[in-house]
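for the writeup, i need someone to sanity check this before i put it in the appendix. the sequnce is what the collaborator sent (i think, or maybe the updated version? ugh). structure was predicted straight from it, no edits. if anything looks off just tell me and ill rerun, i have time this weekend
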Amino acid sequence: MAAELESHRTVARVLMTADTVGGVWNHAVELAALLAAAGTQVALATMGAPPSAAQRAQVAALPSVTLHESAWRLEWMPAPWADLDEASRWLLQLERQFEPDVVHLNQFAFGALPFKAPKLVVAHSCVMSWWQAVHGEAAPAQWNPYRRAVARGLAGADLVGAPTQDMLASLARNHGHRRPGVVVPSARDAGTYFPRRKEPFILSAGRLWDPAKNVAALDAVAHGLPWPVRVAGSTEAPSGATATLRVSGGVTLLGELAPEALARQLSRAAIYALPARYEPFGQSVLEAALSGCALVLGDIPSLREVWGPAALYVPPNDHAALQAALRRLIDDDGQRTCLAARARQRATRYGPRSMLAAYQDAYLQIKAQRETGVAACAS
């Protein structure tokens, strides 16, 4: 009956864009799999960089999901505008071929395109809010073309979504987008992430080249901790720049791990630390919570919105507070176990069924709005 209800609530065909760089990829693939299982055909259009062999294999394993590859630069990358023009023509051609009921855009700029189908634009992150969080000031004038592209994309969307209310609010602050939006939280599968016997180490994961993740703060305090710190993630940015960590005081770099390998590390880690300056949702934190880790997180509104009392929070730039919070959990088995249990319980809010329902509701809403508008014009 549940499967029947889901199929009755879904749309037949979705054209979805995906970024092969970062967490948007995992989100898009998981959502595509859920939609396919509920009876929706999904055309997944990738850009940012060519998919890896592992990413191609992920999609190949999904029935009713087709992969359409490109390597066009994304709007936040250096000098992307010619690539965005090419990507726009490519996406419009894909729409003509696939004839979707809904176009789901995980980038801003394409919201301005004249798709025939209604458009959902999902704001996973934004350079303007990222810059403010990382640098403590507004982004400089060199980002004005990006600002204009984002504003046009938001204005052209039938509906705008974001993984947290905080992220939606940032669109109003930074881009003047004040139309009602929808919160569409991310999700991870508890069948993939689960606790095993915990070991005395601290884990963190993310793009090490991104100062918003603030992994350098862990690097700065690791030498004063009785437990080792392990950090998983890529050190090389899409621009080719490479992050450097001191790694001389108890930090072990694990490199960029496949999802299965990262899941194994999470299942064994007693503490997961992400003292982020900026994190619109925090997919890796959700994976850690499902894996039974106690959470130590940056004290920022989005992470408090998602995790509430299920984590310890530290000001991102306060290394002493970070070290004290980690030592507190290392020294107190009872509090660490209690906090981990609280995080795992909180994580059940962000399950695959909840994410699927949120997106299906959003798709059906904009499809109905468009059909009602067309009917009104025809009458």
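Residues 2-187+351-378 form a domain with the Rossmann fold fold (CATH 3.40.50.2000). The chain has 14 helices and 13 strands.
thx in advance!!
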